[in-house]
Amino acid sequence: MNGLLVLACDGMAGPFYDKVSRAGVESPQFLIALDAETGEIRWKTIRESRHSYATPLVIRRQERDELIAPGGDHVWAYDAATGTELWRCRYEGYSVIPRPVTADGVVYVATGYDSASLLAIDLGGKGDVTGSRIKWRLSQGVPFTPSAVVVGPHIYLLSDNGILSCVARDDGRVAWKQRLGGNASASLTAIGEKLYCQSEDGQTHVILAGDQFQKRGVNRLKGRTFASLAVAGPRILLRSDKFLYCLMEGASVPGGGATPANPAGDGPGDLEIDASGDVEASRDDSP
Fold first, then answer.
1. pTM (2 decimals)?
2. What is the pairing mode between strands 203-208 and 118-122?
3. Which tens digits make up the pLDDT trace of 180-221?
4. Lesser CB count within 10 Å: N end or C end of the chain?
């Protein structure tokens, strides 16, 4: 980000999961910006919150980069160039993992354990915006781990127990929800109008975005899958507990054959396969 590497460090001053204590810990929660070339500290901002693991989000507003950085029981917005606080919003939570997403002047933030909610917060406030900028709040089907994704007028959530929800961005109304099966840790991936929803047991469900649930197919591979998908041009990179797979439409398989063609022609297809032939795929071609 403009030559800066920004790290969110939201740890704990005392032991939490074990009895190990660390002497000399003075600032367990802070954001720090390092020069990407030299590693020198450009700014450091202390904050007080509970522990958290969320990745900050950079957005561009009014000729300025802003950094949206959830903590355990607050989400903050900072001037990305200086680390100056712009606004903050309080909530009940800790151990926040999902990354915020944004669209059309609203940022969507999950609140973490023990009872996750999704907050739709209007951007542009100053100071404590808890009582003034929360547009709506959703308290069902919100993930502890997978990050959400925005496609068109909806935001899509995949809960840790494998339930996919389609939520209207304007008012938080749930258009539909569907259990996909299995548990989920990986974040949702959107490619065009397709959602790729990965479970921990090696299944990737391909769902069409829209106000009705439409499933295009399921890809299955051997192994456990916790990491989120990565997309590079026509390729999907998927990491299991043992292998890194590169999936691509039309990839040849030992012994002949290739994946089915992508009828939409808008990026990776519904049915991909890796070079070792470990992926099984099925498609639903019903209208």
1. 0.85
2. unpaired
3. 989 999 999 999 999 999 999 999 999 999 999 999 999 988
4. C
Q: Please, which residues have CB within 8 angstroms of residue 47's CB and are 6 or more apart in sequence?
A: 29, 30, 31, 71, 74, 76, 85
Q: How confident is the model at residue 9 (pLDDT cuts 50, 70, 90)?
A: confident
Tokens, residue 204: 């990737």
Question: What span, in angstroms and rounded, lies between the C-alpha atoms of 23 and 46?
Answer: 19
Residue-wise burial string across 208-238, b where 16 or more C-beta atoms lie within 10 A, e elsewhere: bbbeeeebbbbbebeeebebbbeeeeebbeb
49, 62, 77, 106 from 100: Cα distances, Å: 17, 20, 11, 10
Residue 255: inside a domain = yes
Structure tokens, 176:
């539909």
CA 32 – CA 5 distance, rounded (Å): 8
**Cβ atoms of 186 and 225 closer than 8 Å:** yes
**Domain harbouring 263, CATH code:** 2.40.128
Contact 217, 281 (CB under 8 A): yes
Structure tokens at 73: 């029981």
CB 144 within 8 A of CB 97: yes
- 96, 72 Cβ separation under 8 angstroms: yes
Each residue of 90-148: pLDDT tens digit?
A: 999 999 999 999 999 999 999 999 999 999 999 989 999 999 999 999 999 999 999 99
What's the number of domains the chain is made of?
A: 1
CA-to-CA distance for 186 and 189, rounded, in angstroms? 9
Strands 127-128 and 106-110: unpaired
Range of the domain at 244: 173-287
> Does some domain include residue 195?
yes
Helix (H, G, I), strand (E, B) or coil at 28: coil
